[in-house]
Amino acid sequence: MTLLTKKPLLIRLSTYLFNNEAKRTESRNFQTATCVLRHVNPTNVKNKSLSSQLWLKRQLSDPYVEKAKMHNYRCRSAFKLLEINEKYKFLKPGQIVVDCGAAPGSWTQVAVKEVNSIGQSSSDQLGKVFSIDKQHIYPIEGATILGNMDFTNPSTQTLLRTTLGDRQVQVVLSDMAPTATGIREMDTENMLTLCYNVIRFAVQVSEINGSLLVKLWQCGQAKKLETEISRFYRNVKFVKPNSSRHDSAEIFILGRYFKGLEK
């Protein structure tokens, strides 16, 4: 083999080695960045309580927090609804959805897209999303917002039913949770009260074969709540999406195929 034939081979070999080294360097940099992300230590935590410091550190190290920013969701909880719906497909174009305890609005953002309430897909039916919370909710295109209203107040639910008019609801969502007191029994009781409020409302406004997704905390009464929901929905199951933190006691109950109420 002459030098003229060897040279292209040497060039190709050098290029191959250079590219491989570049890939290895890029891989090392990515792994280093990932390690840094997983062990972020927050700054400016002076005068903050230990619980606040731990919460901030967890937020900074949470990949779903960064992912929510990338996808323009208001908070990481959007991925819980996305995961559950991806598996069970209960949100569909053209549906009427009520989001209870919606603030800051990430579940509403997901619902708006899934039911096509702003006409993203011209080939699908237009849906509608109604969102309610005690806190203020900044406007979300495609959603009717009822902010600064306590869902558990009977007059608020009457107003919500008036807003719905004669429209029946296909999906009722609830990511609500009470303010924690630190007393386990009291917190559990408050959470169950919220759940029963949502169920009572859902069975009054839902269409036959409608769905219900409600959050609760793992507790001894969870099985009883599942039984209660089974009176109204043909298929009921507990769900724990991957985006729900492993150290969190939250779980979700999904009820599908609403049976309707006896007249």
From TrEMBL:
A family per Pfam: FtsJ
GO (cellular component) term, any one: mitochondrial matrix
UniProt keyword list: Methyltransferase, Mitochondrion, rRNA processing, S-adenosyl-L-methionine, Transferase, Transit peptide
Domain of life: Eukaryota
Domain Ribosomal RNA methyltransferase FtsJ: 73-257
SUPFAM superfamilies: S-adenosyl-L-methionine-dependent methyltransferases
Entry annotated with the keyword Metal-binding: no
Compartments where located: Mitochondrion
Active site: 215 (proton acceptor)
Molecular function GO terms recorded: rRNA (uridine-2'-O-)-methyltransferase activity
Record InterPro entries: RNA_methyltr_RlmE, RNA_MeTrfase_FtsJ_dom, rRNA-MeTfrase_E, SAM-dependent_MTases_sf
Similarity section: Belongs to the class I-like SAM-binding methyltransferase superfamily. RNA methyltransferase RlmE family.
The protein, known as: rRNA methyltransferase 2, mitochondrial
Origin species: Henosepilachna vigintioctopunctata
Phylogenetic lineage: Eukaryota, Metazoa, Ecdysozoa, Arthropoda, Hexapoda
